[in-house]
Amino acid sequence: MNLSIILKRSAYLMLAIALGTLTGCDDDPANNGLTATNVDAAFTITPVAGKVNTYLLTAQENGVISSKWDIGYGSYMGKMTEEIVLPDAGTYTVTHTAIAAGGATAKVSHDIVVATSDPAKPNLVKGGFFNNAADIAQWSSTKLSTTGAAFWSFNNGTATIHSPGGWAQEGIYQAIDVVKDKEYTIDMLVSCPSGSDETWFEVYAGKSAPKDGVEYKDNKVMGLSTWDGCAKAAFTGRLSSVGCVKNDATASVSNVVKFDTTGKIYLVIRSGGNNFTKDGITVSRIEMRGK
Q: Which residues constitute the signal peptide according to the record (predicted)?
């Protein structure tokens, strides 16, 4: 056998060994060293001195890229250190979701017991939790859908707006007493398991009384709008977090309102659209409180 044949055979053998080594590697993305393991979602809860029913949630930061929090209103992206306010007495389960490298997550929950409601921040919305028939009776219909094609249903602490599309819409409202120049915040939990197109869900706090069959447009505060980029896909959370509709008074996304007179205003929620989600948009825990 001559030298050239021996060299060729050696080269082929080395190539085969190299290929075998490459194909023998574990190429499972789960074992690529980029996904974190043993994610620590631990956090502490500290009452904030000088503030009523206000708490500082502090997540441990080792190996954590970002945090999600849920204080009973749905999960939302937050900071490693998050200040929350719980105006009403009750027991709240706070859940922290820690997000680490590769999207790995872990959850830890702790309860906060609020012994006494904050007398300075009562919820001015009556029946906003839709817990029973008395709650539901606090709301009136704007009668925008004369055929009943679009309608609100009430069940187990929630209210849901349904529409077959084709621009059918309906609203609910109630009167609330406010004080001149005092700032208020409005919020609520909203959710939908599927998206929409050409759809809106808007919240108003206007001084003019709603009229049957007339689309309410006085002082839009916040909402969802597929034209503005939200509600196109499934969502859940506080409207102040998942909404994208600008506040008429501030020309920015904000849930803060104030009024130039003391007296009665009307909290109106109006929703509908052309290609409305088949599941409806569900709302609960509607709140309006002084800042």
A: 1-24
Q: What is the pLDDT of residue 33?
A: 52
In the block, residue with structure tokens 């069959």: 213
| pLDDT for residue 17 is more than 80 | no
Q: Using an 8 Å Cβ cutoff, are 255 and 239 in contact?
A: yes
Question: Of 197, 142, 141, 188, which Cα lies nearest the Cα of 167?
Answer: 197
Say how far apart CA 215 and CA 248 lie, in whole Å.
16
H/E stretch holding 9 reads helix 3-23
- The type of residue at 2 is N
Read off the pLDDT of each residue in 260-280 and give the average, rounded to a whole number.
98
Domains by residue range for the chain, with CATH: 43-114 (2.60.40.10), 133-290 (2.60.120.260)
pTM, to two decimals: 0.80
Residue with tokens 């001015």: 124
Task: State the average pLDDT for the chain.
Answer: 89
| Residue 14, pLDDT above cutoff 50 | no
How far, in Å, are 35, 108, 109, 111 from residue 70 at the CA level? Answer: 24, 11, 9, 11
